[in-house]
Write a structure and sequence with these properties.
Blueprint lengths: L40 H10 L5 E6 L8 E7 L2 E7 L5 E5 L14 E3 L2 E3 L6 E3 L4 E3 L8 H4 L7 E7 L2 E5 L7 H4 L16 E10 L3 H8 L5 H4 L12 E4 L5 E5 L15 H9 L14 H16 L15 E6 L3 E5 L3 E9 L7 E9 L30 E3 L9 H16 L15 H14 L4
Parallel strand pairs: 11-18
Antiparallel strand pairs: 1-10, 2-3, 2-5, 3-4, 4-9, 6-7, 7-8, 9-10, 11-17, 12-13, 13-14, 14-15, 15-16, 16-17
Length: about 450
């Protein structure tokens, strides 16, 4: 029986230190946090002062800037970051603003250039951010420009195909700051994947309301009942240092709430995705998960995909939904990753941007499929030949995000409205919501000056 004294362990045989081993529970107390954190402008200002400048912020992925001169732009609240691949193949990041009159330098979300030219007055900057040319330089007093004002650089580092920046320059080195075990990210080889879908939508809630909704599976049978036929809603939850967390969500299996042991069409489809013939399967629903794991491992061996050897059996089917403090969750799978960024609004604590990138590792084989969980629109190019432009939608013009995400859009808006009620005194988190408690405890450490 699953209760607060008996958390879920998916692989009891996993040795200590293994990537799928259950960690001892974190001691995050039982505090009930003030719900004002979800709507207060004062709390939002504390975040801009004490949180965002001090953490590493995920700004992009390396497959988006493969060649020298390739760049990407990431908007984060009132800041805009410009990330550029250099001639020596290194990556630099700059504030996307001209030092002359504050015009944004790069006006597209992505591109490739030899140099950056400010559209306002024509000042030019190299890929390395250094000033190359001032229009009519002789009209400036020499003392104003003696320091040769270039783009303002900020700290930038990568791990496993993910690009991060830090604004105040005081955070520990990225690999020390990330609380995950060595190899946890790198084994997926995200640098070998391509972004095949990218949507940025404005949601009517605080960014932390969004994080909270995606950090637990407790709500699945109530908000997303259609998932019960293909995934378990009891998940293994683990808390790591520095606010990092994960939940391992078993997929290719039915929820324990369903008594029917038959193999439904959803499970049959997942077998087909793994290269199996569902008609030849003679077991029941409980055996599908293992059968799919075996089929995927055999297919990987046939295709020479040696990185599968680094994965546990559970990683071949389950979603390792991993929380990167403070505002990212990545659903990690061998075939691809589902990146969610919960980006704060510049001025409104009750709006945020849900930035979703789906990445896929294309294999030219008729038995290698795009997993259905990705929810890709029909006719999506998954070969990596083209990088789709990010589609952006305001709160009043939301696109169809798919059945599950559409349900989440409605959910977080309702939760946001309820958080301001006199009848709500703060969230009461269960063991199933332990990731939220760990996450908010780390957030408070920053805001209270403990870090």
């Amino acid at each position: 029986m699953y209760d607060y004294r008996n958390p879920i362990v998916l692989n009891p045989a996993a040795p200590e230190g293994a990537l799928d081993a259950k960690l001892p529970p974190a001691d995050d107390g039982l505090d009930v946090v003030d719900p004002a954190r979800y709507y207060s402008k004062e709390f939002m200002q504390k975040e801009w002062t004490h949180l965002w400048p001090r953490v590493w912020i995920l700004v992009g992925v390396t497959p988006d800037i493969k060649e020298p001169g390739d760049y990407l732009v990431h908007e984060h609240g009132h800041e805009s970051f410009l990330v550029v691949r250099q001639d020596d193949n290194s990556i630099k990041a700059f504030y996307n603003v001209c030092p002359h009159r504050a015009n944004q330098i790069a006006l597209n979300s992505q591109g490739s250039v030899d140099k950056f030219t400010c559209a306002y007055h024509g000042w030019q900057f190299g890929k390395d951010g250094k000033l190359k040319c001032i229009t009519d330089e002789q009209t400036f007093h020499p003392s104003l420009i003696a320091h040769r004002p270039g783009l303002t650089e900020l700290r930038c580092d990568t791990i496993g195909g993910l690009i991060f920046v830090n604004m105040d320059g005081k955070a520990p080195p990225l690999k020390e700051w990330i609380g995950l075990p060595p190899g946890y990210i790198e084994n997926y080889e995200i640098e070998q994947m391509n972004v095949v879908h990218h949507v940025n939508t404005e949601w009517l809630a605080n960014w932390k309301t969004g994080v909270d909704a995606f950090y637990e599976t407790y709500h699945l049978p109530h908000i997303h009942p259609q998932t019960q036929g293909v995934m378990e809603d009891f998940s293994q939850i683990d808390s790591y240092p520095n606010g990092f967390t994960r939940m391992i969500v078993p997929i290719c299996t039915k929820s324990h709430r369903m008594e029917d042991a038959s193999v439904n069409p959803g499970l049959q489809y997942m077998m087909m995705e793994a290269g199996m013939d569902p008609a030849s399967y003679t077991g029941d629903a409980d055996g599908v998960r293992v059968a799919v794991q075996q089929a995927k491992r055999a297919r990987a061996a046939r295709l020479g995909m040696t990185h599968y050897d680094k994965f546990t059996d559970g990683q071949l089917t389950d979603s390792w939904a991993t929380g990167f403090f403070p505002n990212v969750q990545i659903g990690m799978h061998p075939e691809g990753v589902f990146i969610m960024r919960f980006v704060p609004h510049a001025t409104d604590p009750e709006r945020y941007y849900y930035d979703n990138m789906i990445m896929f590792r294309h294999v030219d084989d008729p038995n290698y499929f795009v997993p259905g969980w990705m929810g890709l629109p029909k006719d999506t190019d998954v070969t990596g030949a083209t990088r789709p432009a990010a589609k952006r939608y305001t709160a009043g013009n939301l696109c169809d995000l798919g059945e599950v995400l559409n349900q989440d859009v409605e959910l977080v808006a309702n939760v946001q409205n309820g958080s301001k009620s006199r009848g709500f005194r703060g969230p009461l988190w269960s063991v199933q919501e332990g990731r939220l408690r760990h996450y908010h405890r780390e957030l408070d450490r920053y805001l209270n000056g403990e870090k």
